[in-house]
Design goal:
single chain, four-stranded mixed β-sheet, about 230 residues, alpha/beta, elongated
Length: about 230
């Protein structure tokens, strides 16, 4: 059953037209958008989401849009448990995270696995803007990479990355460094066969840093949102 169908008897036709039917699920947290016109019905919408997905334990609504240098967003619990930390599993890797304090996209899951499938045995890899460690850990778990280094400025995300590395005990070839890539990359004593730049916006400002530590004939994975 779809969300709109689940609410047929609880919302008016006008309210159903305003309903945002898409939502993200991170671990056992559903993250949705509640239009201002439906705020009085947000608990009803949250309960409907809980009925539709028995694995969901928290329904949270977004406040505003992703913004700021660290691309975070404010969340508010509207149904069931009042918490924001969760555990998420992806391609054999377990993660802990708080989606309010860190930028994380479940929609990049297939891209992380795709990147892992491209890695050749022994490749040394750098992940700029590594967040909670998703790209480095998924690549480590699903490839025969050499050394993988992740750099992250958000202290909350870096701390989660360290915890996630500890949680996935069989992964031994990943190192996380905290700090701005502008400051950290000049201190690196190696060059890399493959570099990933999974930054939603402004990654082009750091291309020179990436190229300075990329080996000849190395691979650079650059990401950018186009409006």
């Amino acid at each position: 059953m779809k969300l709109k169908d689940a609410l047929q008897n609880e919302l008016t036709e006008k309210e159903l037209d305003l309903l945002v039917r898409a939502y993200d699920v991170v671990g056992d947290i559903a993250i949705t958008i509640i239009p201002p016109e439906l705020e009085a019905k947000e608990r009803i919408i949250g309960e409907a989401l809980l009925r539709l997905n028995k694995n969901i334990k928290v329904v949270a609504k977004r406040h505003g849009k992703y913004g700021g240098e660290l691309r975070t967003i404010s969340l508010e619990s509207i149904a069931r448990e009042n918490r924001k930390e969760t555990e998420y599993k992806e391609y054999g890797v377990r993660f802990r995270l708080n989606p309010e304090k860190v930028y994380f996209s479940v929609r990049s899951s297939n891209e992380r696995k795709r990147l892992a499938s491209l890695v050749l045995p022994g490749e040394d890899i750098l992940v700029m803007f590594s967040g909670i460690g998703a790209f480095p850990l998924v690549m480590a778990k699903n490839s025969l990479a050499g050394k993988i280094v992740g750099i992250e400025k958000n202290s909350h995300a870096h701390n989660y990355a360290e915890k996630n590395l500890t949680k996935n005990k069989k992964i031994k070839n990943v190192t996380f460094l905290e700090g701005d890539v502008v400051d950290v990359m000049p201190t690196l004593s190696m060059k890399f066969d493959r570099i990933a730049m999974p930054l939603p916006k402004t990654a082009e400002n750091f291309l020179d840093k990436a190229l300075s530590v990329l080996k000849q004939k190395g691979w650079l994975h650059f990401y950018d949102f186009q409006s």
